[in-house]
Amino acid sequence: MKTYYLPAYAIADLIKTRQISAVEVLEETLERVRDVDGRVGQVDASQAQSKEDLSSVHAFTTLADEHARGQAEKIDQMVKAGESPGPLAGVPYTAKDIFTVKGIPATAGSKILSNYVAPYTATAVERMETAGAVMIGKVNLDEFTYGSSSESSALKPVPRNPWDTSRVTGGSSGGSAAAVAAGEGAISLGTDTGGSIRQPAAFCGTVGLKPTYGRVSRYGLIAFGSSLDCPGPLARNVTDAALVLQAIAGEDPRDNTAAVVPVPDYLAELEKDIRGLRIGLSEEFFRVTYFDADTGELKENPIDGEIKDAVLSVAGFLAQLGADIVIDVPLPHTKYGIPTYFVISRVEASSNLLRYDGVKYGFRTEQPFEDLRELYRKTRGAAFGVEPKLRMLMGIYLSAAQFDKGYYQRALKARALIRSDFETIFDPKGNYRLDALLTPTTPTTAFPIGGVYGDSVLMQYSDQLTVTTNHAGIPGLSIPVGFDKKGLPIGAQFLGPDYSEGLLLRVGRAFEKVTANEEWRNRRPPLLPAND
Ligand code: GLN
């Protein structure tokens, strides 16, 4: 097997035991990228046209091969010198193009940052480097992470799903999920504000972990919703996700919302059994509830039947392993997740986007301008895409003083109710005493490119099962649990109380082990030659 599809822990072992060098692993991975990725995303480039374009992954926005070679050589020297190169020694990885890395472009998928080269490095990236990982490039995303398909990026062509390149990768960490699934790096760093790690992980058949809010520093992230954003890993297996979390979690003096809570040893817990754990299922997560804009009435749609069946079969496996499955767990405020998110995330987004004005950094209009206002208007008009513009308009409207009570304050109340739903079911002295909740990650599998894009409300509803996690600030782990009849990956997620990442990873790992010999576990995206 080529190293580009090996687990991160296996790559690090081979390098540390000098069976292969970090440079060799890197070159194999870069070759893989050249084979499957196609054109690197660029502003104002044409959308996919040629046959080759249509069957390529297009995960990357920047290839950092020189940077990566320098890092890989450093790892090899450390190994040679008998020094400890770190738990992720020589593991190639990518970072969503929303993380800053000194000396490397950070575009956020937007024209307004298309010429921006970061002067500093995000904490999560710095910690990956300390752990020995080698960053091979930045990967595409929805513009400013606003979306669920990665189609809104200003950098074209947008990513394509390695399992079926006519379909979306999900979003906004779509480049991350696609890269990991296609063997372009063992790991990727993504961010999750309403589901942006877990939803693309589910669509591309990878593991994705949204940590507890504050578990991982946000320093060096280009901000979307500051009270919701969480950096975290996408990986091909649960152990690798645990290794990454171990590396990046923990307090950070540069982010005062980074929690001052000790980081446990995630690997020590990973292989423990799950006997006696209480795992819940809730009907609220087997349907999508939305408000009919014409009548104002609540409507319900069941989620895709194949996804429901797959999640119930996960519950069956966990029961076999001795977990107690608790059914009919009430989470009555789940249905308010999306409307609440519309309000809170738009208000925070519009405030965070004010800094892009063509004066300090980033794109500036090439048109003549008379005064500062015109400079702002022409710069922002030309360089923000539709989605940021929509979100700013809505955010500014909603945060107007006269609407504060009706929308923002109400949304904060709904958010508190969503949080209290989870507190009730995870309360160790309560009626449910759950250790984790098992739910589908998404209501559907990956949809066709162009199928939903343009309907920003419908697009938003693909996050209904992930977004309440962000409101509550709790962790969520999405893992692959099978395929639908179209051959598309299905994801299920485990949610737990604050800082329960260790337990969620352990349950995910238990499922991985008990299904190790299932037929679907051996499937590879068609882009991967069968013998690799
Ligand atoms: N899809 C959601 C949105 O469009 C979530 C994005 C995210 O988590 N960054 O806002």
List the helices and strands and how they pair.
Layout: H1 8-16, H2 22-36, E1 42-43, H3 51-54, E2 60-63, H4 65-80, E3 92-96, H5 123-130, E4 134-139, E5 155-156, H6 174-181, E6 187-192, H7 198-204, E7 207-210, E8 230-235, H8 238-248, H9 266-270, E9 278-280, E10 287-291, E11 298-302, H10 305-320, E12 324-326, H11 337-352, H12 372-383, H13 386-398, H14 404-426, E13 436-440, H15 456-460, H16 467-472, E14 476-483, E15 489-495, H17 501-514
Parallel strand pairs: 3-4, 3-6, 9-12, 9-13
Antiparallel strand pairs: 1-5, 2-4, 6-8, 7-8, 7-14, 10-11, 13-15, 14-15
Glutamine binds at residues 145-148, 172, 192-196, 224, 345, 460, 463.
Summarize the structure.
By secondary structure, the chain is an alpha/beta fold. It has helices at residues 8-16, 22-36, 51-54, 65-80, 123-130, 174-181, 198-204, 238-248, 266-270, 305-320, 337-352, 372-383, 386-398, 404-426, 456-460, 467-472, 501-514, and strands at residues 42-43, 60-63, 92-96, 134-139, 155-156, 187-192, 207-210, 230-235, 278-280, 287-291, 298-302, 324-326, 436-440, 476-483, 489-495. Among the domains are: 3-272, Amidase signature (AS) enzymes (Alpha-Beta Complex), CATH 3.90.1300.10; 338-408, no CATH class.
Question: How far apart are the termini?
Answer: 5 Å
List the strand order in the largest sheet: 2-4-3-6-8-7-14-15-13-9-12
Low-confidence stretches: none
Q: How much is the radius of gyration in Å?
A: 22 Å
Beta-strand percentage range: 5-15%
Characterize the biggest β-sheet: 11 strands, mixed
Determine the number of helices (DSSP H or I, runs of at least 4 residues).
17
- Average of pLDDT: 95
Outline type:
globular
Bound molecules: glutamine
Give the proportion of residues in helices. 25-40%
CATH topology of the domain at 3-272: Amidase signature (AS) enzymes
Q: What is the highest CATH level, the class of the domain at 3-272?
A: Alpha Beta
* Global structural class: alpha/beta
How many E-type strands? 15
Q: Label the CATH architecture of the domain at 3-272.
A: Alpha-Beta Complex
CATH superfamily of the domain at 3-272: Amidase signature (AS) domain
